[in-house]
Write a structure and sequence with these properties.
The complex is a heterodimer. Chain A is of the alpha/beta class. Chain A contains 16 helices and ten strands. Chain B is of the alpha/beta class. The chains are: A alpha/beta, B alpha/beta. The interface between A and B is large, with 59 and 52 residues.
Chain lengths: ~425, ~280
Amino acid sequence: MDVLEKLTILTDAAKYDAACTSSGGSRTSKKGYIGNTSSSVAGCCHSFSADGRCVTLLKVLMTNCCVYDCKYCVNRRSNDTKRTAFTPRELADLTISFYRRNYIEGLFLSSGVLRSPDYTTELMIQSLRLLREEYRFNGYIHAKAIPGTSPELVEQLGFLADRISVNIELPSESGLKTLAPDKTKQAILAPMRQIQVRGKQNHEEIVKYRHAPKFAPAGQSTQLIVGATADSDYHILRLTQGLYDQYRLKRVFYSAYVPVVEHALLPSKDVKPPLLREHRLYQADWLLRFYGFRAEELLDEQNQDFNPLVDPKCSWALAHLDFFPVEVNTADYEALLRVPGIGVTSARRILTARRAGRLRIEDLRKLGVVMKRAQYFLTASGKRAEGLLFTQDSLLRNLIAVERPQLPQPEMVQLSLFDALATV
Amino acid sequence: MTDMVYYYDGSFEGFLCCVFDSYANKEVLTAIYRDEDLVPTLFASRSILTDREHANRVLRKIVKCSPYTANLLQKCHLTCLPDKEIHMYRVVVKLLKEGPGFLRNFSDETLHPVAAAVRHLNGEAHLLKGFTRFSDFGGVLGGEIEPKNRVLPLLRSHFCARYQGETFFLYDRTHKEVLLYANGKAVIQPLEHFEMAPPDEAEARYRLLWKRFYDTIAIKERYNPKCRQTQMPKRYWNTMTEFQDEDYFKEQNSPADAAAPAVPDGRPAPETRQPPGLSAPGSGI
């Protein structure tokens, strides 16, 4: 099989993984090596695919052969599909050739489980070592740790990669039991804990010895599948919060479940992937990481799922109207961040701008505040936006109207004369 | 104080000399144009000669008041903001008159157009760090871009660090400039005409591999062209490998490419087509 066909098969099998970021690394270029990791905080996107997701890394599987039989996965043992594997040299050559042409920021290497987790991880380590040592590649590498791999191999992987991730995939243990019977919660969480502890140790080593080798300098991340099981948004968000707090993850990714297989335990094949739900979860994820929200503030036992009509921050604001209006000239940073329509950048700009003089409502737009949302929730020097009249009911209606153009539109249907006649 | 229109040579030093002369002659400027623009005007006008000594004096003064502004102005001079010179001039005048306090306020009416234009420049440079595509011509990397702003000075450090052991060139079609890098030295210089050499066998293969990867990675069920276009506006697609038509992925060995600007023994193509008198390294911007 030639490389083009292998690439097609192994890309097709890897595409459901959501993570494709190159952020978090700050390795400068080294003499005799090619590449560095992007110095900007946001990472660097090299393209966007037809589904609007960014293409940063060469995202492929080492092999799509798999001994596991997870029901939701295209690569499961019982699926009748073409199987293949890259040799380490083919993979290294592809990575370096794509990197030199500036197609990619680095490599994202995942894999099906060939023979055993240890055997597969050894294959991955072999490829990465070839890439780092012989091809002298100094760019970004994201590697997957396979649940059940022995700790020594995870350690070796961590010294070759910038970021490691272990995918949780199913947000609850019961889901795991029914849909992925070969995996256990323990097998997934053990490498996550190991990566966290080892990373912390490594920080101390680097303080003592400046040139100590770095263990996964861009941290670790994970992925949750949304919509394959019946777990609520509240459950997923609390799990996310726990992962950020206890495992110090850099990112949790959500992947709307795309039905690839007909199975009694899974949503049927004509169900559309829950993209809006995924979007709401990402919005809430940002609120946890950058806006100082807690999962319990956004959802609770009574409201287990996000409102599809308005975003989580607006929902929170509507439920806490006594917190508003916020006075932009005096409010502190945390209070500004709670206003819908004010983000991290515009909140910082407000803080510096008001040192130069009092802010007026008309200045806020130039500072990057989204006034169509924010106007209901703030005052500047005690004044609201001119001509703004609203009641509690109309406020909700207005916010829904603001959000509507961004939501998926219902499909247009041509009215049929005969259907109408038939019903008469 | 009289209202005046100044003409200058288009360089950043030239702009600083406009500032110098407006203070020396006690004149208020209503517009600053480049010499080559030849805008007819009813205002009294003056052509400013660039004097390094004067430019340095103005720059030193600006740096003393606010190092941030010096950087902002240098960057703003690379942007495509219409009448950028007069906007920059107003920032300098306000800085010298009132001090640096107003710079904190992003919504300040003098600062905002300049700061917004620089944001646009930075944004475009950031996108092009990803969207630029290189081709391998016998060991030399070459690429083309079509930016609105003059981003090459901002891209220089990024690509030179990333490909420090390589030799490469990057051509800016809009501003007809080229960034050349070899042996750890980088130069930006003007280049009127440039045509990319056709790919050899290996290059055509990697282009095809990339195109295939790009087409495969998209999930059909999530097709969302609007989102893609928001993230990656169509004006960048022209120079990106994945959006080229079939010919781009075919190896070309026609007799025509012997005459075309091919790459002679591993040196960058533009070197062979340079206008005379511009070849001294370090003469760039």
